[in-house]
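We treat protein structure as text, and this decision shapes the records that our systems exchange. The remainder of this section carries one protein's record, kept here as part of the documentation:
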Amino acid sequence: MEKVFNHSTRKYEGIVLERIKHLPEGGKMGDLPVHLQHESFIRKGAKKTGGPNMRLYRLEHKVPALTVTAYIFNKFVHPTEDRYITPREAACLQDFPISWEFKGTLGQVHKQIGNAVPVRLAKAIAKSIHDFLVKKEKSSPMKIASYFSGAGGLDLGFENASSAKLVFETCFTTDIESWAEETINANRPNWNFLRKDIRDLSVEEVISVIGGKPDIIIGGPPCQPFSVAGKQKGIKDPLGRLYSDFIRQVNDLQPSIVVMENVYGLTQVKSANMIELIYKSYKDIGYEVLHRELNSADFGTPQKRRRVFFIAAKNLSGYKFPEPTHYEYPNILGLPLYVGAGEAINKLPSPTIKNFDSQQHV
């Protein structure tokens, strides 16, 4: 079997182990006996304020996981074993291949995995782009410039969607994080990673790396300002305005098509109509744009994760978003059922056991 990276766990004891042992499949903190519930979880006072701040959830064998976040440690419990899942198991829930090695400290590895676009979801979008471009009689290879690349989930989706008719080739990746640089260089050095803030990135630098302008631009501007799990400051947060820098790159490089993704909370930001702002921004540079919210479980990912995808081009006539390939319940279409979290991670070998902390490189 190929080498399995980032697949270590630790021994658990005390109340942590007791909580895990008492947690049924699909169970959460509230399903535990009261004496085992974390104090931050228990609502107190006349108005029952407080909690639940400490999350806990045992995965199910035949049910997709809840959304994997950048803080998976001390949250997701293995379906049958009394321990938290390993980074590799979390990466499995994000569809990353077993051979994909995440670099950095344990905390950085968790963030890379949690922030990634599930590979099967990315492939579904890439396949819809593939079919659209084939109809437009575009020739291979279609060169990709990838922004906010992170651990490379979106790029892997495009790589996997290539065919004899049309090949996608990531020629440029960029992010501000050193761990993203290490991870991409360890797995796909041919993706030509450049660590730089998009606000300081010139068109000349991109063209120099690629050897010309890209045919496709893809990327997911930071989602924290729009996440429903956060404070939803939106464009009031400087990070929430990076989408405009992304669109500036589109305007300067004039690709045939653009894929921009973000959390579904983008559509719910109260401080601004982000959908309207994004549509106007693309219209101002001569691009048509369409958007749709997709659920990764609908495409075979063992995780329920909702993302919003924006597709932009000078002419989008004939483009169609991907249709689900999996379904939650038995259906008349004959689609296979959702892939369960346990079904996915149980294919892995047993993890190694060692003691480590969040700042230790793994």
The chain has a mean pLDDT of 89. Residues 119-135 form the longest helix (17 residues).
